[in-house]
Every structure is written in structure tokens, then in C-alpha cells.
Design a protein that fits this description.
By secondary structure, the chain is mostly beta strands. Helix content is 6%, strand content 49%. The strands form 15 sheets. The chain has an 8-stranded mixed beta sheet. Strands 59, 61, 62, 63, 68, 69 and 70 form a 7-stranded mixed beta sheet that branches. Strands 3, 4, 7, 8 and 9 form a 5-stranded antiparallel beta sheet that branches. Bound molecules: 2-acetamido-2-deoxy-beta-D-glucopyranose (6 copies). Residues 1-22 form the signal peptide.
Length: 927
């Protein structure tokens, strides 16, 4: 858009609201000479009055002309008709131009000119108008024959009236006869200023009397020597014409006026440019036709050219300092002005929410030419305010953020001086600049020397307005979205600028896990990382992960504080994974996994394996064995319920998804028994067989050998574990007791026995004593009990002397006068395995020393051997199967007992003793 004269919107200033204190200071009527804010200048044929913005108050400015005692208010039409123009920039800086040929200017001999103006400012906030009065005197001389003045709102031509004029003048093909006109309109003589009537050339002729001319808005007057005519732009009687490519408005009039010498016709033409400006971002180029052809009929010579700003001519030095250029080509006079020159001003605009600027400057072109034929000179002066089109100036966001400092550092700009930062619209809402600063953001305005400004903002990453997310487990991305709320002054036009900045930092501290075990539980503690408790905890359960939900948290006694949580997981809980089972321990593992939500990234994992005590096999002395089969993780498809012993009809007494408990008698369920040198081993196998496969029994998927082994003295358990993976059987025997018991029957029927409380038992001399020695509880029919040695002692110490052999090397002592007798044993309700039991009897006797009865009491002791009936050998061939018939009659001695005891130590022997047997007082027989 080309904006020249048409841009003057009105005569009334609509602008500035200025704080009241300035108004207070100015409410007086300051003398124009003493007030630097109000200046007046004489600029050739115009006078300029400037009012500084600091003096502009209120919202309206009216200008009144002072003509003697008359005060005439200048409306915009009257101003254009009378040679006044006014323009204010957005801040209230005001220029008033007055033509020296204008109305209300006191003209002395076309040489000095005096003007008085009154400036009145009104506003809603002003109790009464503020007024300034300016009076100025200017001298201007000499005038050119013709002076054409183009101001923003009018075209003016002032022509020297030549005293002797040719009565008839050729003018564009029209001829007028002086006499005939004078005769036709007799009252022309008495018209004001002696002007009678005007004829417009539009280009058609249109005639008006002076009164109509003035009423139509045109200006006409005579001065001592000159005729001045004036027209606003775009009047019905003016017309447009393009001259050398430049649009121009032409005002062309022939004036009839009365002189002493008679009626004279004078032709006046003003032609003013309304265009001819080219813009680039850097420069304004203004073309004016070199030959303003409506004003010129013959050839002319340019005498002077001047460039000025705001009506004021500039000298060469000033022009070059400002990089202005004035050049004359064959067709044009050209003025070049850099955009941004200090003589103009920038203005901000928000157009479609986008930031634009315009630049406004008012150059002046003045040139003088002389017509070759008439030697008449013409001064041609154009005051030409130019505003560039809207120039898009999107501000830049410069991101100075250094992520490590954890603060967003953003700069927005540049903006012109007329832009203010009001507020920010953040994700949490709108914060003013003051609120932002008190929240800890650092908002600053930075000004450049040229008046431009930028705004900087620092926002800590930690603030709520910064959004955070994690692109990967270790990185946090910080994102700040803000809308700068800006305001263009003085018109208070709001506009917004949206900016986004993002920064990434590897600042995630991941949670860590520690743990310990005791004999029963795992103890795990999780220390939160930078994300706090914002993660999910998973537990490895049967090979897959499950979330530690509130139920599990309760089950595992979860405790937490602001930085940690801990759980206690029992070693046999479902979330414990069994790795290996040994006979008395289990290696179990707890696994935890921490995952980030919502991305489900693995943050950390933790695995803790501990041995916990666990008895899997127990061997009881009554011949029962219990064995616990545990499903370990290497046999994931194992179903404990389907485990069996060798005899596949022997199923678990109890089973769950991870355990099977077997309880069985050692002579059942396919249990095998093996004798080694000094052990007896029972063995069975827990296995799972593929029920459908024919090869199942040959190749079970799972094998677990369980065994119990017995020493003569002790019952030992041994547990062999074999699984497909672990080839390393681990044996760790447990201890039990094999019970061999000696009892004294009340008679030969072996039906009733003396009990512990019956001792000491009292017997008559030579009364038979019926002994039973039995392996208790065991039901293994392949064991035979053989009595190797039995002897009697006076004292309860079995090794004491004196002693007397009753059975030697499994046979009766042949030396014994009171012969020991073996009695057969047969099965009955009480005796299930006869080979486990031996019956023998002796006759009650008494020890003597030197033929006297030492003491009427006896203890009987036996050494019993447990034999494998499948391997009969030596003693184990049977009770007195190979009698040696030792004929040695000597009394048993402690030496002999000791030797035998030593020999017995090599074998699987069990020693039993009777309680005290007393000799009845009624008997006195000795052996
Ligand atoms: C200004 O005042 C003078 C005399 O005081 C008068 O002759 C003249 O017509 C006035 N001008 C206007 C335009 O009123
Ligand atoms: C702030 O921005 C949000 C989202 O862009 C918008 O919905 C809201 O209207 C804005 N608030 C103001 C006061 O501009
Ligand atoms: C003012 O100066 C700054 C910095 O030199 C520059 O970025 C900006 O464009 C200038 N503004 C104008 C309006 O020339
Ligand atoms: C939280 O508990 C952990 C141990 O579980 C302890 O080390 C830490 O000091 C506790 N922190 C607070 C703030 O109580
Ligand atoms: C063997 O003894 C164990 C442990 O005392 C007991 O649980 C089991 O029932 C007994 N077995 C028989 C067959 O008596
Ligand atoms: C029998 O066991 C006891 C105690 O366990 C032990 O002191 C003794 O030596 C053992 N005897 C034999 C013959 O093994």
C-alpha cells in the first residue's frame, strides 16, 4: 500500500494518554519561546510548528488560528482550503505546517509573514483543555514567479501577478475576449480581491464565481503581488494524470480578475505526485518527474534541487551522513532513503497475530526550473510523507540453555521500542512478568542502542511449568511451552508469540536394590532414584514376572518411607525360585525387576540366591521314610502330583505345585536294600514317568534317588539327588537310632515281660531266667539278629569283673553248669519277623569268691549282630551255625571281655543289658 497524502485521517489528533503529572505541569500557558517542547521554524514558503510528545496530553488536539481578535477553529476541510496541515506520530509528536500564503497569515509586502496559532488539547481525564499559543514571524523573499506547494492535504500555486497582461491569452485552445467578458458580467469589478470568476480545466472547462469556488472548498486570494489558489486532493474539479510513470493530481484554473487596467485572465496549474515510491526492505526510492509536464509548455532548465526532511532542507554533509541520495536522471528526480533512517520512525503492528513493522519518514523535494522562452522561474516543493508497507519481522527465539545448568535460558526478539512484555501463558496458566519473577524465573528486558529490545527468560527445569518425559531410561527431556503476551504501545494492541524450547539431560538416577537372607527369608530393600516411587516392581514367579501389587505388598510386609521400601519374602513363597535341592538345604533365589512407567523400561534388576535349611529325607526307626521332592527351576514342566516311587502306585501323600511329600515303609514301594561293610542302605527313587511313552520307565524325565542307611549303632539317612542336570550327588547323612532291646520274660511262654518299674527282679537260685533280645520296630525280614556274646556281671558295668560267659561266638557256653538254652521263636501276633528276635534262658546263679556268695545279684549283657540274610557269612551264618565248641574252662576275665569288645567294634553290633536280677534270700546255692 502506498500511503501518501491520503493517509492523513483527520484533523483531530486521536492519540496519546499521558500520565496526569505531566498534565499538571503543563496546565499553565507556557511561553512558546521558553518551552523546548514547542518549536516553530521558518522553512522557505512554509512555517512549521512542532509539538513534542511530552507536551501532548489528552486525546484530542484542536488548532485555532488567531486573526486579530478572531479565533477561528481549523477543521480539516478549512485546513486544506487555507494551507494548513498537521500530522502526529503514534506517540503524539506533532508537526503543523502552514503555508506562508495561507489564510490568517499576516502578510507584509509579500516579504514578512506573521502567524498566531492556539493549540488546544482535550481529554476525558483533563478537567479543562490545555492550551498553548504560538506566534511566529517569518521572512521569505524573493518569491519565484510561480511557487507550487504540494502538502499532504492540499495543492497550492502562487503566481506573480504581472501588471500589464495581454488581454487575450492562449490557454489550451481557449480564447477569451477581455471586453466581452467585462460586458457580460458587470458586477465583476466589485468581487473580493478583485477576483471575479474561475474556470477549471478538468480538462473540460467548468466555470464558477469566486463565492462558489470558496464554498466548494477551494482557496483563492490575492496578496500584494500574487494570486494564490489552493485545492484539496481528489476534488470534483481536479483530475489525475500519469507523468513519466508517476501518478499526479492536477489542479488547473484560469482566474478572471479585475485590475485598474481592466479584466485580466491568469492561468494557474498545480500538479502534485500521489505515487512514485518503490520499496525494498532496505530502501525507499521516490521518483518525481523531472519535467512536471502539466506545469510546463516549453523547454526548461533545472536550476536547483534540494532534498529535505519534514520540510527542512538538508545540506550535502547531512545527506551523506544519513545515506540519502538525490539524483536527477533524464526523466526523474530521484530520492533514495534507507529504511530505518533516524529522521523517520518505526512502528510495530500485529497483523494476523504476526509481528510487522512499518517505517515512516517525510522527505521533501524542492526544485527550481526556468522556462527557456519566458525566463519565468518555478519553485516546485513537495512535502511527501511515506510509510512503508507492513514488513513481516518475525521475532527469533534464541535458546541459550545449557542443560547441565538445569535452567531454560530463552531470548525473544528483537522488537521495536514500542513493544512491551506483559505476561506469559505457561502450561499452568498466565503469569505476569512480576509473578514470573517472584516465582523465581528471571525475566529481563534488554535494549539496544537503536532502541530495539529483546526479552530474556530463565526458567528452572524444576518448575512445574516445565514438562518432563524420558526418551530413554537414563535421559530426561525438559520441554517448555510458553506464549509471550506482548503489547504494542501506545495503542495497546495485544499480540502473542508462541515459543517452545526443549533440552535433554542424562540425569536420571535409577533405583537400586540390596538384599540379604537369614534362615527363613529374603530381605530386599529398594532405594528410590530420581524418579521417586514412580516405577513398578516385578517379582519372578514361576518363570514369569508379576507385579508387586498391594496384595503382595501386604503379604511380604512391605514397609516404606520417602526414600526406600523393603519387603520380606519367605524362602518357600511362590516368588522364590528353587535352584538346587540338597539333602538338608535348598538354594533359592529371589529376583526383582524395576520397570519405569509408562514406557516399561527396565530400570534395574536384582537377583539374590541363598541356601536355606531344608530336610528333605527323614528315616524313622520304625522303618518309615519320608521324602520331599521339590520342583526346581530346571524342570519347569514337572508336575509334583504325578511323581511316584519306583512302585508307580506309590503316590505322594501330599502334593502342591512345587512339592510332593512321600511317606512309605522301607519294605514297600519297590525300596531296595543293600548291605555294605558297615552300612545298610535302603534306596528308592522319586520320578516322573511319561505316562504315554513306552520307554518311560527306562528314561524318566525327573529322577530323585532317596535313601536311608543304617549303621549298627545308629540309623543314618542319606539322600542322593540326581536330576538330569546335576551329576554330582551330595550326601549328608542325618542321624537316627536302631533299637535293639533285651527283656526278661516272666515265664517260658514269652507272653508277659517284666517292665522297667519291676526291677530289680527277684529270682530263686536255679530258677530259669527267660531272656528275649529283639530288633525293635523294623519290619525288614531280610535282617537277622544273631546273639554273638552274652555274659553276666556282678555290677552294672558290663566290663566289670567278675563276669560269666553265657553265650560265646553265638553258641551256648559249654563251660556252664547251668547250661544256656536257646528257644525257637515263631511268628505270632507280637512277633512279626521271627529272625529279629532271639530267646534264650539261663538258670539263676550267684557269684562266689572263695566259695562264699559275694552278693546275690546279677546283670546280663549281650552283643547282638544285625545280619543280611542274603549274605550269610561268619557269625551271620546263624545262631551257633558253626559251633567252635571252645572247651576252655577258664572263667571269663576282663581281658577276654576287652578283646571281644574290640573285635565286636569291627562289626555291626548292638549291646544290650538286662536290669538288676536279685537272688532271693530263701536260697543260698552257689555256682
Ligand atoms: C483577518 O482579519 C482581518 C482584519 O483584522 C480581516 O480583514 C481578514 O478578512 C481576516 N481574515 C479572515 C480569513 O477572516
Ligand atoms: C493459555 O494457553 C492455553 C493453551 O494454549 C489456552 O487454552 C488459554 O486460553 C490461554 N490463556 C490465555 C489467557 O491466553
Ligand atoms: C537494532 O539493533 C539490533 C542489534 O544490533 C538489531 O538486531 C536490530 O535489528 C536493530 N533494530 C532496528 C530496528 O534496526
Ligand atoms: C528409609 O529407610 C531406609 C532403610 O529402609 C533408611 O536407610 C533411610 O534412612 C530411611 N529414610 C528416612 C527418610 O526415613
Ligand atoms: C513311624 O514313626 C513316625 C515318626 O514317629 C510316624 O510318623 C509314623 O507314623 C510311624 N510309622 C508307623 C508305620 O508306625
Ligand atoms: C555307638 O554310638 C555311640 C554314640 O553315638 C558311640 O559313642 C559309640 O562309639 C558307637 N558304637 C559303635 C560300636 O559304633
Amino acid at each position: 500500500m502506498l500511503c501518501v497524502h491520503g493517509c492523513l485521517v483527520g484533523w483531530i489528533l486521536l492519540a496519546v494518554l499521558v500520565p496526569g503529572h505531566q498534565y499538571q505541569r503543563l496546565n499553565s500557558k507556557p511561553n512558546s519561546h521558553s518551552n523546548p517542547g514547542l518549536r516553530s521554524d521558518c522553512l522557505g514558503n512554509v512555517m512549521r510548528i512542532t509539538l513534542d510528545k511530552d507536551l501532548a496530553v489528552g486525546s484530542q488536539l484542536e488548532i485555532e488560528a488567531i486573526n486579530g481578535s478572531d479565533i477561528i477553529q481549523l477543521s480539516s476541510t478549512l485546513a486544506a482550503q487555507c494551507g494548513y496541515s498537521m500530522e502526529s506520530d503514534p506517540w503524539g509528536n506533532t508537526k503543523i505546517f502552514a503555508s506562508l500564503s495561507g489564510c490568517y497569515v499576516f502578510n507584509q509586502a509579500d516579504a514578512t509573514f506573521q502567524l498566531g496559532l492556539r493549540l488546544r488539547m482535550y481529554g476525558d481525564n483533563l478537567p479543562q483543555p490545555v492550551e498553548y499559543e504560538v506566534t511566529k514571524m517569518c521572512s521569505y523573499s524573493p518569491w519565484a514567479s510561480r511557487e507550487v506547494l504540494c502538502d499532504r492535504n492540499y495543492m497550492e500555486v502562487s503566481t506573480l501577478m504581472v501588471p500589464t497582461v495581454t488581454p487575450v491569452k492562449a490557454f489550451k485552445g481557449h480564447r477569451f475576449q477581455q471586453e466581452s467578458l467585462s460586458n457580460a458580467i458587470p458586477d465583476a469589478i466589485s468581487a473580493p480581491n478583485s477576483i471575479w470568476k474561475m474556470a477549471f480545466h478538468t480538462p473540460e472547462m467548468k466555470v464558477m464565481v469566486l463565492e462558489d469556488f470558496l464554498i466548494s472548498g477551494y482557496g483563492a486570494m490575492t496578496t500584494p503581488k500574487r494570486l494564490v489558489l489552493r485545492s484539496p486532493y481528489n476534488m470534483p474539479e481536479t483530475y489525475s494524470e500519469e507523468v513519466a510513470g508517476v501518478p499526479m493530481e492536477v489542479f488547473s484554473v484560469s482566474t478572471y480578475y479585475k485590475e485598474i487596467s481592466g479584466l485580466t485572465v491568469m492561468d494557474s496549474v498545480a500538479a502534485c505526485p500521489t505515487g512514485g515510491v518503490l520499496f525494498t526492505d532496505e530502501a525507499i526510492t521516490w521518483h518525481v518527474p523531472r519535467r512536471v509536464s502539466p506545469l510546463i509548455s516549453g523547454s526548461v532548465k533545472i536550476l536547483e534541487t534540494h532534498m529535505g526532511i519534514d520540510g527542512q532542507r538538508l545540506d550535502k554533509a547531512k545527506m551523506s551522513a544519513r545515506h540519502y541520495r538525490l539524483s536527477v536522471t533524464s526523466t526523474h528526480v530521484v530520492i533514495e532513503i534507507p529504511v530505518g533512517s533516524p529522521d523517520g520512525y518505526y512502528k510495530s503492528h500485529a497483523l494476523n497475530e504476526e509481528y510487522h513493522v512499518t517505517f515512516t519518514i517525510e522527505p521533501m523535494l524542492e526544485f527550481v526550473w526556468k522556462a527557456d522562452n519566458t525566463q519565468a522561474d518555478t519553485r516546485y516543493k513537495v512535502l511527501f510523507p511515506i510509510t512503508t508497507p507492513m514488513m513481516l519481522r518475525p521475532p527469533q527465539v534464541i535458546d541459550y540453555t545449557i542443560p547441565e545448568q538445569k535452567v531454560f535460558d530463552v531470548l525473544l526478539g528483537p522488537f521495536l521500542h514500542d513493544v512491551e512484555l506483559l505476561n506469559f501463558n505457561f502450561s499452568v496458566g498466565v503469569l505476569t512478568v512480576a509473578e514470573s519473577n517472584s516465582r523465581g524465573f528471571d525475566v529481563q528486558e534488554h535494549r539496544f542502542a537503536n532502541g530495539s529490545k529483546t526479552f530474556s527468560l530463565r526458567v528452572p527445569f524444576s518448575d512445574e511449568v516445565v514438562q518432563k518425559h524420558n526418551p530413554d531410561p537414563l535421559t530426561t527431556s525438559y520441554f517448555l511451552l510458553m506464549v509471550f503476551g506482548l503489547l504494542i504501545l501506545p495503542e495497546q494492541t495485544p499480540f502473542q508469540y508462541l515459543a517452545e524450547v526443549e533440552a535433554s539431560l542424562e540425569d536420571v538416577v535409577i533405583p537400586t536394590i540390596t538384599g540379604t537372607c537369614d534362615q527363613k527369608n529374603f530381605y530386599a530393600s529398594v532405594k528410590y532414584g530420581s524418579g521417586g516411587a514412580n516405577f513398578q516392581t516385578m517379582l519372578l514367579n514361576a518363570g514369569s514376572w508379576r507385579e508387586l501389587d498391594s496384595d503382595l505388598a501386604k503379604l511380604y510386609h512391605l514397609t516404606e518411607n520417602s526414600t526406600h521400601f523393603s519387603i520380606i519374602v519367605p524362602h518357600l513363597s511362590p516368588d522364590s525360585t528353587f535352584e538346587v535341592v540338597h539333602s538338608n538345604s535348598i538354594l533359592a533365589r529371589l529376583e526383582l525387576l524395576l520397570v519405569q512407567i509408562p514406557n516399561m523400561w527396565k530400570l534395574n534388576d536384582f537377583s539374590l540366591a541363598c541356601f536355606f535349611p531344608l530336610t528333605t529325607t527323614e528315616c524313622y526307626s520304625n522303618g518309615t521314610m519320608t521324602a520331599l521332592a521339590v520342583k526346581v527351576e530346571s524342570v519347569g514342566n514337572l508336575n509334583p502330583e504325578h511323581l511316584t516311587l519306583r512302585d508307580q502306585s506309590c503316590k505322594p501323600a501330599f502334593s502342591s505345585d512345587r512339592f510332593a511329600l512321600f511317606s512309605f515303609n522301607l519294605n514297600s514301594c519297590g525300596t531296595t536294600r543293600t548291605f555294605f561293610d558297615n552300612l545298610m542302605v535302603y534306596e528308592n527313587e522319586i520320578a516322573m514317568h511319561r505316562s504315554t511313552s513306552k520307554q518311560s520307565s527306562a528314561d524318566p524325565e525327573y529322577r530323585h534317588i532317596v535313601s536311608c542307611y543304617y549303621l549298627t549303632n545308629d540309623t543314618k539317612t542319606m539322600d542322593f539327588l540326581t536330576t538330569p542336570r546335576i551329576n554330582d550327588p551330595i550326601a549328608d547323612p542325618g542321624v537316627g537310632h536302631l533299637v535293639v532291646q533285651m527283656t526278661l520274660s516272666k515265664d517260658a511262654s514269652y507272653d508277659a515281660f517284666y517292665q522297667t518299674e519291676d526291677y530289680p527282679v527277684v529270682k530263686y537260685l536255679r530258677e530259669p531266667l527267660y531272656f528275649e533280645v529283639a530288633l525293635m520296630q523294623s519290619t525288614d525280614s531280610q535282617i537277622q539278629l544273631v546273639l554273638e556274646n552274652c555274659w553276666a556281671t556282678l555290677h552294672d558295668d558290663r566290663t566289670s569283673v567278675p563276669s560269666w560267659d553265657l553265650i560265646v561266638d553265638s553258641c551256648e557256653n559249654l563251660d556252664d553248669r547251668y547250661l544256656t538254652v536257646f528257644h525257637p521263636v515263631s511268628a505270632d501276633a507280637r512277633i512279626q519277623v521271627p529272625s529279629h528276635v532271639k530267646h534264650f534262658s539261663i538258670k539263676m546263679f550267684t557269684f562266689t569268691r572263695d566259695e562264699t556268695v559275694v552278693k546275690g545279684q546279677v546283670f546280663v549283657h549281650c552283643e547282638a549282630v544285625l545280619c543280611d540274610t542274603t549274605k550269610p557269612d561268619g557269625i551271620c551264618s546263624g545262631q551257633c551255625a558253626n559251633p567252635q565248641r571252645n572247651a576252655n574252662p577258664s572263667r571269663p576275665t576282663s581281658t577276654k571281655r576287652g578283646r571281644r569288645a574290640a573285635e565286636a567294634g569291627q562289626q555291626q553290633k548292638r549291646q544290650v543289658s538286662s536290669g538288676l536280677i536279685l537272688l532271693s534270700d530263701s536260697s543260698n546255692e552257689t555256682i
